[in-house]
Amino acid sequence: MKNGVPVSEIMTKKLVTLKTTDDLVTAERLFKKHHIRHIPVVKGDVIKGMLSYTDLLRISFADAIDEHEEYVDTIVYNMFSIPQVMANDVVSVTSKTTIKEVAQLLATNEFHALPVVDDGKLVGIVTTTDLIKYLLKLYK
């Protein structure tokens, strides 16, 4: 196994982001459209928080309803703002942080994604899925 490989080798660089002024209906559309589970919340290119699809599920009770699911989601989502639902105390790494260090952070914490920030600017995101894909390539 390679030692010292930087996270920049596996991070997602083409980012889907939200602004704090966006709404949760927009967030859900982005999660579904891009088949992702974590979206950095930014002001300009500065990270302000992280919204996960799980965060949306926590406030939605639409899973218990069959008929008008989308309508119920919209009502519930309009009751909250992104800053109210997102994680504010975001841990980040730099693009030079090693994949091993990222794996240790993700393995010992309750979150599954880390924003990658260089010089105060969001440059990527790395998730547990990125780590698993990397490990699978090593075992080919």
TrEMBL record:
The keyword Nucleus does not apply. InterPro entries: CBS_dom, CBS_dom_sf, Diverse_CBS-Domain. Residues 11-67, 86-140 form the CBS domain. PROSITE patterns: CBS. The keyword Phosphoprotein does not apply. Gene3D superfamilies: CBS-domain. Coiled coil: none annotated. Pfam families: CBS. Keywords: CBS domain. This is CBS domain-containing protein. It comes from Flagellimonas aequoris.
